[in-house]
Write a structure and sequence with these properties.
Length: 166
């Protein structure tokens, strides 16, 4: 398979898998707006989405999305061996592999991504709150952090291109 064709398939698969898990670009854009709206007065949802798309265009981000969602799906289907099954199923607090995977996304646009990620991971607004809801039977141990990391990276990208001192 040609390298460029594989990249296209990876990009499309990552977007499709997120969509199937109930995550839209608009959901992520709301997080970006939360992170950057106080600092950039004329920030629009369209600009947020454009920056999210730039983050999603990176192969390392696509790989994180595919890996994380697959782990969540395996846990939902009970296909992991114990104790990993229970660790991911219940999103144990000391299991940091989901955050470590996501930190590779936050670092794409510099260290500000880590502080954005830490903040949004702590308060869990919008789509992150829904993804952390255990009552629907879905497991999003990895996906909630990945979505937060994408928002943090897009916010960092905006900050680097549109930063203004108040």
């Amino acid at each position: 398979m040609k390298k460029s064709l594989q990249g296209y398939k990876t990009r499309e698969a990552a977007r499709e898998w997120m969509k199937r898990r109930g995550v839209t670009l608009e959901d992520i854009a709301e997080l970006v707006m939360l992170l950057q709206g106080d600092y950039i007065e004329d920030l629009t949802m369209e600009e947020c989405i454009k920056n999210i798309e730039r983050v999603l265009a990176k192969r390392e981000v696509q790989n994180c999305i595919l890996t994380g969602i697959q782990m969540d799906v395996f846990a939902e289907e009970g296909k992991l061996e114990s104790p990993l099954q229970e660790i991911i199923e219940f999103d144990e607090g000391l299991y940091g592999c989901d955050e470590i995977l996501s930190l590779s996304i936050t670092n794409v646009y510099g260290s500000i991504g880590m502080t954005n990620f830490g903040y949004i991971d702590k308060i869990k607004p919008g789509i992150l709150r829904r993804l952390n809801n255990k009552e629907d039977g879905e497991i999003h141990t990895f996906l909630d952090d990945i979505v937060g990391a994408i928002a943090a990276a897009a916010s960092s990208r905006i900050a680097h291109t549109r930063y203004s001192v108040r």
